[in-house]
Amino acid sequence: MSKLTDVPKRILIGRALRSDRLGETLLPKRIALPVFASDPLSSVAYAPGEVLLVLSVAGVSAYHFSPWIALAVVVLMFTVVASYRQNVHAYPSGGGDYEVATTNLGPKAGLTVASALLVDYVLTVAVSIASGIENLGSAIPFVVQHKVLCAVAVIVLLTLMNLRGVKESGKLFAIPTYVFVGGVFILILWGAFRGLALGDTMRAPTADYQIKAEHQGLAGFALIFLLLRAFSSGCAALTGVEAISNGVPAFRKPKSKNAATTLAMMGLLAVTMFCGIIALALVTKVRMAENPAADLLHNGQPLGAGYVQDPVISQVAAAVFGEGSFLFVVLAAATALVLFLAANTAYNGFPLLGSILAQDRYLPRQLHTRGDRLAFSNGIVLLAGAAMLLTVVYGADSTRLIQLYIVGVFVSFTLSQIGMVRHWNRHLAVEKDPASRSRMIRSRAINAFGAFFTGLVLVVVLVTKFTHGAWVALLGMVIFYATMTAIRKHYDRVAEEIAAPEGPSDDMVRPSRVHSVVLISKIHRPTLRALAYAKLMRSDTLEALTVNVDPAETKALREEWEVRGIDVPLKVLDSPYREVTRPVIEYVKSLRKESPRDAVSVIIPEYVVGHWYEHLLHNQSALRLKGRLLFTPGVMVTSIPYQLASSEAAKLRARKRQEWNAPGAVRRGPAERPKAAPAGKD
Amino acid sequence: MSKLTDVPKRILIGRALRSDRLGETLLPKRIALPVFASDPLSSVAYAPGEVLLVLSVAGVSAYHFSPWIALAVVVLMFTVVASYRQNVHAYPSGGGDYEVATTNLGPKAGLTVASALLVDYVLTVAVSIASGIENLGSAIPFVVQHKVLCAVAVIVLLTLMNLRGVKESGKLFAIPTYVFVGGVFILILWGAFRGLALGDTMRAPTADYQIKAEHQGLAGFALIFLLLRAFSSGCAALTGVEAISNGVPAFRKPKSKNAATTLAMMGLLAVTMFCGIIALALVTKVRMAENPAADLLHNGQPLGAGYVQDPVISQVAAAVFGEGSFLFVVLAAATALVLFLAANTAYNGFPLLGSILAQDRYLPRQLHTRGDRLAFSNGIVLLAGAAMLLTVVYGADSTRLIQLYIVGVFVSFTLSQIGMVRHWNRHLAVEKDPASRSRMIRSRAINAFGAFFTGLVLVVVLVTKFTHGAWVALLGMVIFYATMTAIRKHYDRVAEEIAAPEGPSDDMVRPSRVHSVVLISKIHRPTLRALAYAKLMRSDTLEALTVNVDPAETKALREEWEVRGIDVPLKVLDSPYREVTRPVIEYVKSLRKESPRDAVSVIIPEYVVGHWYEHLLHNQSALRLKGRLLFTPGVMVTSIPYQLASSEAAKLRARKRQEWNAPGAVRRGPAERPKAAPAGKD
Lengths: 682, 682
What we know:
The structure is a homodimer.
Chain A (H helix, E strand, L loop, with lengths): L1 H4 L1 H7 L4 H8 L3 H14 L4 H9 L10 H25 L5 H10 L1 H33 L1 H5 L1 H18 L5 H28 L12 E2 L8 H15 L8 H4 L8 H29 L8 H4 E3 L2 E2 L9 H10 L4 H34 L13 H21 L4 H33 L3 H65 L15 E6 L5 H12 L4 E8 L2 H14 L5 E5 L6 H14 L4 E10 L3 H6 L2 H10 L5 E9 L3 H12 L6 H4 L14
Parallel strand pairs in A: 4-5, 4-7, 5-6, 7-8
Antiparallel strand pairs in A: 1-2, 2-3
Helix pairs in contact in A: 4-11, 4-14, 4-17, 5-12, 6-12, 6-14, 6-20, 7-8, 7-19, 8-10, 8-17, 8-18, 8-19, 8-20, 10-17, 10-18, 11-14, 11-16, 11-17, 12-20, 16-17, 17-18, 19-20, 23-25
Membrane topology (chains A, B): Multi-pass membrane protein
GO molecular function (chains A, B): transmembrane transporter activity
Organism (chains A, B): Streptomyces pluripotens
């Protein structure tokens, strides 16, 4: 097999599969769109409904403001898309908002963005799954009757999938996303055709209901506040837009251009769907309320606690396609599926961002290396745990969860756009070429407007939603920020402590001699191997050490030592309490005390077994001893493993683990090529 | 400080404190009695009641059989005590029933005894605490109303105490045990005085109730069966008698004689209390039923589900002292306390037996070394978990739990006594001295009678209780037996696999050269130290190895390497997927492939920190790499620790852990003096 004969080559280029994988991984636009856009596109499943919900506070008459709010959302969407097209060109490395903010506004701004994004990932999971369950529930009543249970079950399922490392594939995203987009477009077109060409009167299931306005005849400041709140809720449609700017490396070349085009396509699709659904909702007289049990009336009577308010998209589909019809069911299923995919997005983005933060030492270092299953697992479990907590606390109610959602998004939008303005300022200061300058000035204008607009929306969101739940999101951000600051401080403190002294390394006090000690319990293959290896190391002195836990066994050991004529002196430590660790530690300390400039090398034969329960039966004393020896200065601890037959099982498992796919591999693109330091011997 | 200057001496004799501790640990008889007898003495708190309960099945008229049953229990108690006095003399090492059965009947019999004892320890906890709660409940109704909760709380408390290693002290046992014994004797004497001298009519709280016999007018075989069942229940009074035979080493000299005397005292106290309570119960007309809600009638009406049946000892105390009187409350409290101490006995005995079983490789080896906190903790948690499960399943009902209890005790009694008969046979085969021979023949007769009687009781218990719950205990024994057999098989298989080949050790293929590799991530004190130590080891070749995870960092490392003029070649491994483990493993494998007879020494600098959460931030890659390297043949793995300032905290904790007292230390006595192999250099 070439795999086995070609080891040096494999070391140089990693795995034989690497280059194949590389081609497989790069995304054409038609696949990149669903991979990155399932999150923003899926939000049109709930954003229009949220607008109507808020407006209903002022009664059904306020619904006529909804086109204006839709318009504001459209303008905002175009602004954000245009802004991020600049980001994509300026930062093709995929660092996204965190990189932009850190580079241009400093580490604190960057960390703020990172905290906001981490909170957002949690909420993406919670909101998308809650909404997915509600959409599924419009077709399958059981699901909505056991909302929390079903939502938690979906979270658990997604978590297990991601923990197991199910390979992400572009197609997995493409099919449901395109079915969803296609379904919504058919819905809009068929609705328009029926309404305009056939002149049908389409009526939503709730068309006959009346809305009891909580505040009748709102006007002036109160009305404006309500409209702003409705607008804030509509902004939920913008969540996830920034995802593409994190994924530039995954695109085919020209990466930035393709990413920018995909961004534009995504924006266009999103606003069309958003506006279409709002329009159909108005035409079919969808009636929604924040508190439907009390505020929706049928023949003057409140509908009561048993009433389940279906999502706007499903009500519109019921009106256009007919409730329970084939297309209605297909659209409901596709909507739910695309929302679950959107949730899955967070499972991929969370460890990706974690890896970048780890590189900057805000999170444990091991998150930085790819394919670290343990680290990814911890991140995934943390994400799932937080999302599940929110789901349970908020009863899997998407409307209540959305109140928390938008703050984080707009924090990162705003800081990123401010950062981009700085970015262009910096470049303009040195750029001489007039053509480049004018392009930069144009980009700066776009980003400046983007910063202004998103900043304004952030203020609006904060003001209108703080008491509705945005404070929870802010609290989450503060916790992430504080934790990451603490981790960074720890790393900095350690780095200072271990910094090498100036000058050549000979400055270090180098021990003059090394005294090796091989721990022996019995004479068998592992200990004989350890003795053989220890002799190879040619330390200054070498002795075998045993602890007299059982006098009879010790006596037998001495005798066999003699019989075999082993040419290493055997030292026996007494242990009146049948302990192993303490006598060895004290002996090592005494050696160090005798000659403080010497080092002591403790050599421990170890069994290697294949199952954790076998491991419990071996090496426990060795493990404890090793743990304690590490705290003893001037010591090195050597394990000499002896592979028992059963260890083959573990090797097989390790090989399987190697083939594990880290979540988010598709959207992350291939690893960067090393820019320096070609491999090979110096 | 002499502590620091006297290191070699401390190594020889362990700790400076050792000899002091030794004196402190040996028990005089007056302390040994409560330490070992709290379990058997406390069982008189429930055993008499159990006899009455069973008899009540045949109606109150059957109560007149109870003196005969008490007599049978007394005879059995004397038989068992007499038998164990032989054990104590013949096996002064404290191995107990397990040792006796293994030595004389073979390992299978020994393992059966061990399984029975392990099950018994679990049941001692469950039964004693359930009964303690019931006794406490007779004074404090709240406790008995929340029986399961309180029982579980006591188990948790005992578990935490034992996990923390609260130092066992003889006095802790002495006071409640003597208060309890004293209280019961005052009860009996005062009752006798009131009844005989004053002619008072003492009436238990239940004296007016009638018992509805489940089987009226039982006769013939059915009656005999019921009497045997009542006798079986009464045998609960014998549980724990064997404890002294495990604890001979803890006695002052002459150990065996003192232990035998203590055993006799214990037997005498137990039977006196048992008979006294039965007698008082008959005089005061205590009425108890297995199912009191339905079978106890007051004025012809069943008492109903709300009725709580108080233990016999508390009913008698209420009759003699008056309900709620000072002595009544003191006796209830002392009874509960002594029962909780009896439960604590199991927490001490379980790890002690575990340590002996570990020596014979039926349990993980590390249980054998004393003071191994982790191993003890696992044992304690296992014990507590099993006891808690039983408590919850059986609703903390001592009567239902006792059905499970007695099987294990009599399995070990019987096998131990049969073993003793074999023991004497073996000795008689070689003994010539007529005086010794006649003593041995006498002992053999006692043990033979003991074996016969306890074996008979075992059969009776099995027949009368199997369906009542004894099958659960048997199932538990089977599980323990199977697990221990599997562990032993594993150890035997491994021992065979690793057995050293015959002849001198040079038979082993010894690697010819050693190639050392120091893993480097950055240049700092830990890596410089590792390099210095690695140079000391004088391996055949030495190189530094780094994985190119981040090209910029790698470049900086190479430059600093040059600047510092480090005279070890630096090799850079490429890692396209930013992994650390795989490139290193493959490189090591390639080295081995180039020269298969050489060994590879991988040297890993490691940070040592003081808190687990700090540990999460460091060494994770090193840990994973070490784990994988152990599976690679021909490799030795050396950790060179660098102690960060925060590691001081861990050192302090380690020192505290050293002062931890293993549960059961008092009853175990001081560690044996080594019989051979005095310490010191060869």
